Predict the 3D structure of the following.
Amino acid sequence: MADLLIVIPAYNEADNIERVVDRLILEFPQYDYVVVNDGSRDRTAEICRKNGYNFLDLPVNLGLAGGFQTGLKYAARNGYRYAVQIDGDGQHRPEYIEAMRKKIDEGYDIVIGSRFVGEKKPFNMRMLGSNLIESAIRLTTGADIKDPTSGMRMFSRRLIEEFASGLNYGPEPDTMSYLIKQGARISEVPVVMDERIMGVSYLTPINAAKYMLKMLISILLIQNFRKRG
Amino acid sequence: MTVTLRILLIVASVLTTILLMRKIRHSKLQIEDSIFWIGFACILIVFSLFPAVPDFLSGLAGTYTTANFIYLFIIFLLIVKMFYMSVKMSQMETKIKDLVQEIALDENARRAHKKEDMPAAYRDEKEEKEPV
């Protein structure tokens, strides 16, 4: 058994899951993986079963936070040292796990696969949101995180346990800001991400605006009142 | 607005805010759910500290007095919130139902599977004891 677990949350990813997981199995056998099928209504579960993938089949849809937590519960129960999230749509490239692994071995709690370390952000609506969240985190914690919305994050054993049992530990920027404030050491490693090839993104303009509002209120207001544990 | 109503509003909004913060602090509430209540407490505080705001809105809505407007406004907000909670509760009940059914079906499948693996003699004995 490897000491690093790749958690792949998948919701309606029938078009992508085979490509993503087959690549992991063939080219990265040094890592363990688990697919979390979050109550998909398409053929995601069927494909996983047919191919004999290691997967957790949630009978109802829990949303990203609940699905990801299931993966980390699995990691905690099976004693993994590190867990990293890779999206089921194939936008995160597994070849960067090695670099993230090296970084977290230096003694960090969280390592983010960042699109913007040492690079300028392109100017568009999505980056405006990313900049706003970055500023909010700098304002409340003093930490400089270039790519807070990146979904490719690696966590240490200590944080795996915390994510597995905690309430309000979604894999989102507001949780990062909370953890930094609680003294977690965080670092970023440059990565390149792909655009999603098949299927539709959940991020419609209205959903993006709602997400931004929620993140900003959460980072600027709510996280300041939270107590640890 | 009378001075008494203003004082009442200020006290109520501050107490509400303190209660909310305490619950959030002890992780009793999900962040999604606390956002509405924080907004609600903010509105109460704004109304009580700056009565010009509800006065102006009351004029727009055509209510007889500002106090009437505040009642109307809060009742409206709560009805909308209640509707959304009702929707959410229906979804939760459906999910629980699905989960319970899933557990029962799973357990049944596992039992059937086990029976096939058992030696024939034991299987007969077992079936007599436990009619399913």
